[in-house]
Amino acid sequence: MAGTATPAASSWHGNVPKPNPRPDHAELRVSNQDREQVVDHVKAAYAEGRLDRFEFDDRLERAMTARVHGDLTPIMDELYGAHPAGPGSYPPVMSRVATGRHLDGRADTGGERVGAAAAHLLPLTGLLAIGPLIMLLTAGRTSPYVRKHAVEALNFQLTMLGATILLTITFVGVVLTPLLWIGGLVLSVVGGLAALGEGNFRYPFTLRLVK
Predict the structure, then answer these.
(1) Which residue among 36, 67, 84, 206 is least packed, with the fewest CB closer than 10 Å?
(2) Spacing of C-alpha 74 from chain mean position
(3) pLDDT tens, 169-183?
(4) Using an 8 Å Cβ cutoff, are 3 and 52 in contact?
(5) Contact of 13 with 92, CB cutoff 8 Å
(6) What 3 state SS string does 134-146 have?
(7) Gyration radius of the chain over CA positions
(8) Angle, helices 53-64/32-47, rounded to nearest 10 degrees
(9) What is the per-residue pLDDT across 85-120, written as a single tens digit (0 to 9) for each?
């Protein structure tokens, strides 16, 4: 159901390459900002009625799990039609008022902030890595803000579990494990408060296995 649109005069301000990118460009890794910009275009197309729910979910999932530029370009082609290589432009994404989202991935509603905070605080209930994973697979599918915090919390909990397994091998490690988890609980609370305040938070000493 994805329709085509005539490119506007102003360029789409993103780092996603024009269609038919050079092979070396297509293989470059994308940043979170690149993904979020394409997500904004997908949400705008859905709000305009150019995508049905299935198409929206499919393109949103592909955009949020993209690893290289070559993964993002086909999504933009499907939204606006294929463009020849070389100079060109996509229509600018709709404003925050129209899409209901900040273009820089910040939370636009209190619900998003609560969801992001829950990703940090659910481990305090004993859910550990399961809590952030639940938020990632539910609210994180449609909110870049929740996804950002859920991924960070999930990576931290996985790191904590791995460190606990390694520490229990030695007697000294067994003694240090309770201190490790006390520190982890404090950091989870700090992360939750940061998410409620619409801020960014990165856990120290964390292996970021999930992107």
Answers:
(1) 84
(2) 19
(3) 988 888 999 999 999
(4) no
(5) yes
(6) HHHHCHHHCCHHH
(7) 20
(8) 170
(9) 443 455 665 444 344 445 445 666 788 999 999 999
